Amino acid sequence: MRLIFLLLIGLAVVGCDRQKGGDEQAAPPFVAAEPGKGVDRSHRGETAPTVMFHNPDGGAISLAAMKGVPTLVNLWASWCAPCVKELPTLDRLAHSHVIDGQLGVVAVSQDIGPQSSVKAFLAQHKIADLGAFHDPEMALTSALDVQVMPTTVYYDAAGKEVWRYVGDLDWTSAEAKALLAEAK
Q1: pTM exceeding 0.90
Q2: In Å, how far from its chain's centre is CA 122?
């Protein structure tokens, strides 16, 4: 019995990767990482939700403001190891499209702390081209029925979902390029 208890405690510790430091927060009740990883097309054609979240300046914004250009919307959190792993590749993707304007890349933190902590986290990890979008109420997570972090949703220029990618992905890979070509 004691062995089972110790095993359960060990699994609980391994399954949660929290950010170290003074502003630790508990992980929400959804899973971080691998279960069901990959492309999900079951929401194809659904309109982007109208819920509001914070833009990098702290003002309110919704996905409707991004209509007109295909947009990749990534939901991430600082406590989520797979999220942190993929942020640099999202940053490189965003950097490459700043010039051509053919793709919007929006990474929205689902951390419950203040927006200043999101900005500090991005700076600490040298993420320069992703703005500090922030959704501390996790309204997007709820509206999109996200169960796994990270989840990335691709919208066409009309604001309709093309697909979502559950789990982390190298957004500079050939697989990502093929997926992104679907809404152009």
Answers
A1: no
A2: 13
